[in-house]
């Protein structure tokens, strides 16, 4: 009986147990493999989550933007110089146009400007791509129209138009803008639009340093807020001759050239300067 007992079940039990153990071992081997697969599957999710969390901070750091509060006496060109804005006042104005408005020379104390702002690479790039051809065409037209066969020329080259003629506003004693502003940095060459005689050159109160020239057709051109004058009263000038440099003298918030056409040499006799220039073959804006 004991011998039979040895051959009856213990062996079978050992065999069964070994199968079970083998099965268990297979399962044990499979489970860590599945567990490892699960861990590896979770890793990308964790990485993405971590990256997504870090992205805004990284983008913000890369942008390097800061806010500047405009102070009395500030101008966009002055701020751009002091803050080392790459692209100068034009870039600063472009980044803050919605806050500044249509006239870059009119910035008020307390206005918040973003410095170091970068354009988005998506829709902004597409928009730029769409506007490039027309912008190039406009630039070419302006370059070709700075002077004409009629003997007239623009008072400044490559300038953008800021405040237009007869724009209403309480900052002007007449209740409206009596000329047109050409947005240029201090030190830009100012030229006589046509041949004529200088009737006045000097300080003009709110206009700062100004020059007034009488032309052959009886009209007068006025150039205001200049930083330096190159002519004097009684002097004869030719079309395109330098008469001074642009600046920010008088009642201004930033450097620009205030330009008028008048029927007399005095304030209050203004006519549309853009229409006048166009009537002499000069394209403006």
From TrEMBL:
Natural source organism: Streptomyces sp. R35
Signal peptide: 1-41
CDD domains: LysM (cd00118), M23_peptidase (cd12797)
Gene3D superfamilies referenced in this protein's UniProt entry, alphabetically: Glucose Permease (Domain IIA), LysM domain
Name by which UniProt lists this protein: LysM peptidoglycan-binding domain-containing M23 family metallopeptidase
Superkingdom of this protein's organism: Bacteria
Keyword annotations from UniProtKB, A to Z: Signal
Record flagged with keyword Membrane: no
Any one GO MF annotation of this record: metalloendopeptidase activity
Keyword Protein transport: no
Ranges where the LysM domain occurs: 66-115
InterPro entries (UniProt xref): Cell_wall_metabolism_enzyme, Dup_hybrid_motif, LysM, LysM_dom_sf, M23ase_b-sheet_dom
Pfam families tied to this protein: LysM (PF01476), Peptidase_M23 (PF01551)
């Amino acid at each position: 009986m004991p011998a039979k007992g040895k051959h009856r079940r213990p062996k079978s039990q050992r065999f069964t147990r070994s199968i079970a153990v083998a099965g268990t071992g297979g399962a044990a081997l499979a489970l860590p493999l599945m567990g490892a697969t699960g861990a590896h599957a979770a890793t990308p999710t964790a990485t993405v989550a971590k990256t997504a969390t870090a992205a805004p901070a990284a983008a913000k750091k890369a942008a390097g933007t800061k806010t500047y509060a405009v102070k009395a006496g500030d101008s966009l060109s002055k701020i751009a110089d002091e803050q080392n804005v790459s692209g100068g006042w034009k870039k600063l104005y472009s980044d803050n146009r919605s806050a500044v408005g249509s006239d870059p020379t009119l910035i008020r104390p307390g206005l918040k400007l973003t410095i170091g702002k970068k354009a988005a690479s998506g829709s902004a790039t597409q928009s730029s791509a769409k506007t490039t051809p027309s912008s190039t065409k406009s630039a070419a037209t302006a370059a070709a129209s700075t002077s004409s066969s009629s003997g007239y020329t623009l008072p400044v080259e490559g300038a953008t138009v800021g405040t237009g003629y007869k724009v209403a506003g309480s900052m002007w004693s007449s209740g409206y803008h009596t000329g047109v502003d050409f947005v240029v940095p201090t030190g830009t060459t100012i030229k006589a639009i046509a041949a004529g005689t200088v009737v006045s050159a000097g300080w003009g109160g709110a206009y700062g340093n100004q020059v007034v020239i009488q032309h052959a057709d009886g009209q007068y051109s006025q150039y205001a807020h200049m930083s330096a004058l190159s002519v004097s009263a009684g002097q004869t000038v030719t079309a395109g001759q330098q008469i001074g440099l642009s600046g920010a003298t008088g009642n201004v918030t930033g450097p620009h050239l205030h330009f008028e056409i008048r029927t007399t040499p005095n304030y209050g006799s203004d006519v549309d300067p853009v229409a006048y220039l166009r009537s002499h073959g000069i394209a403006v804006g």
